[in-house]
Amino acid sequence: MAVLRDYPAGLDPRLTDVIGRVADKWTMMVLDVLSEHGELRFSKLAHLATGISQKMLTQTVRQLERDGLVIRTIHPVIPPKVEYRLTDLGVSLAEAFRGVWVWAAHNVDRIAASRRHYDTRSGD
Hints:
By secondary structure, this protein is mainly alpha-helical. Helix content is 65%, strand content 11%.
C-alpha cells in the first residue's frame, strides 16, 4: 500500500483515526443521502437514512460537522429549523464512497453465495 511507504513505522495515527471515522456504515449512509438529496432537515435525513436510530444519527452528523464534512444551519424560526448539507470536503468524500456503493451492489450476490458456502462447510 503506497500510504504505508510514507510512514516507515506504520500508518500515521491521525490517518487511521480519519479512516476509522469516515469508513463506518452510518457516515457512508449519511454522506450518500446528503449527496443525493442536498440540504435536508434532520427529520427528512432520518427518514432517508434507513435503519439508523435518532441517537446514532445525531452522533454521526455532529462528528461529520466537527470533521468539516457537513454544515449545520440553524434558522431562527419557531419551531427551530435545522438543516444539514455537505461541505466541499464532504462532497469529495461522498464521491469517493460512491465507488464502494457501486462495487457492493455489483458483488452482493457473490458475497452472499460465498458466505453460504463458508457457513455450510463441514468441519468449520
